[in-house]
Write a structure and sequence with these properties.
Length: about 350
């Protein structure tokens, strides 16, 4: 039975979530409520940071953005919990089967060796003893055959489990992939970033982060609809994938915002990659497939930060975000690094 205090706390969070939604004129549907309940509880620091950043930059929480928040922060957690539990169970079963096979083989081998030794020692003795030993040896052979049959069955079961494990791994990969753009999602970004930060902290490598945002994307969606908006997001994702180096991680960070994790890169290398992305996306023509109408080009603003040993992952993301929004404020369709941002602040 749930503790009374827990129930009261959950109720308080629920009221706070609905209050936050009402302030922003957000429809009280289950997916939106899940986002704001998670936000007010503070259980997902990245969701809280994203919402606060969007609020601070006076961004609207339209249905498209709210769905992205749900898909990026709430849904992956639900899927990850289920996948993790299933994976642990499969691993446990496989380990138990492996132990059973090893134990059975060892026992039969030991028993067979013992009887073989006894047979040799009694060879030439009384015939009835020899017959008994011969019978025991035959029984051992029968047991070995049965064990081989059992082993075959267990190996078949193990093979099935390996198949299930492969399917589970595929499910894990899918849970790390953004459903629309087919590049890494926010959950995958968070995990990889943590690993790369740990590597950078050890001094084994440098690390840069690029934050990317499509300019005037909401206006594009309003003018041409979400279907064409989705087409743009797919185009950007594909361009990111073909513009980075092996080992880099392009990801959909949320809504129209993307990120690129760049291990073993300094600011100049990161700028070169970011400029390549910006130019390639800017050179693409957006065409309405149903009519062939040329809708022109889209542009992007990009911000870059370099990891400083000892800082948190959140601090790195924040500095890259600040450079991104500075790029937007100073004209859009440009790349700014944290150094450029500091120069603007000092000017």
């Amino acid at each position: 039975m749930a503790d009374k205090g827990d129930i009261e706390q959950s109720g308080a969070y629920g009221v706070e979530a609905l209050t936050e939604m009402k302030k922003r004129d957000i429809a009280a549907i289950p997916e939106n409520y899940a986002v704001w309940y998670t936000y007010v509880t503070g259980s997902d620091s990245e969701l809280r940071r994203t919402v606060d950043t969007l609020t601070g930059n006076r961004q609207e929480f339209d249905p498209f953005r709210l769905k992205a928040l749900f898909d990026d922060h709430v849904l992956p957690k639900m899927a990850a919990d289920a996948i993790g539990a299933a994976g642990e169970e499969l691993t446990s079963i496989a380990d138990q089967l492996g132990d059973a096979i090893g134990s059975a083989n060892a026992n039969v081998q030991s028993y067979g060796e013992t009887l073989a030794t006894a047979s040799n020692e009694l060879e030439g003795g009384q015939s009835d003893v020899a017959n008994v030993v011969s019978g025991l040896i035959q029984s051992t052979k029968n047991m070995q055959e049965k064990n081989e049959e059992l082993q075959s069955q267990i190996e078949e079961a193990s093979s099935e489990i390996e198949t299930l494990r492969a399917k589970l791994e595929e499910a894990r990969r899918e849970s790390d992939t953004d459903g629309l753009t087919q590049i890494s999602n926010r959950k995958c970004f968070d995990r990889v970033m943590k690993d790369r930060v740990m590597e950078a902290m050890s001094g084994d490598s440098t690390l840069c982060l690029v934050m990317v945002d499509i300019d005037f994307f909401k206006k594009f969606n309003d003018n041409y609809g979400h279907q064409l908006g989705d087409q743009v997001l797919k185009l950007v994702a594909k361009t990111l994938t073909t513009s980075v180096r092996e080992g880099d991680l392009p990801a959909r960070y949320g809504g129209e915002e993307f990120s690129v994790v760049l291990p073993n890169a300094d600011l100049e290398v990161a700028r070169e990659i970011a400029e390549r992305i910006r130019k390639r996306v800017g050179a693409k023509k957006i065409v309405k497939r149903s009519t062939g109408e040329d809708l022109g080009n889209i542009t992007m603003s990009l911000g870059i930060a370099r990891y400083d040993i000892g800082e948190s992952m959140q601090d790195l993301i924040k500095r890259a975000d600040e450079a991104l929004y500075a790029a937007k404020r100073t004209g859009r369709n440009r790349v700014l690094t944290e150094v450029d941002l500091k120069a603007l602040q000092d000017a």
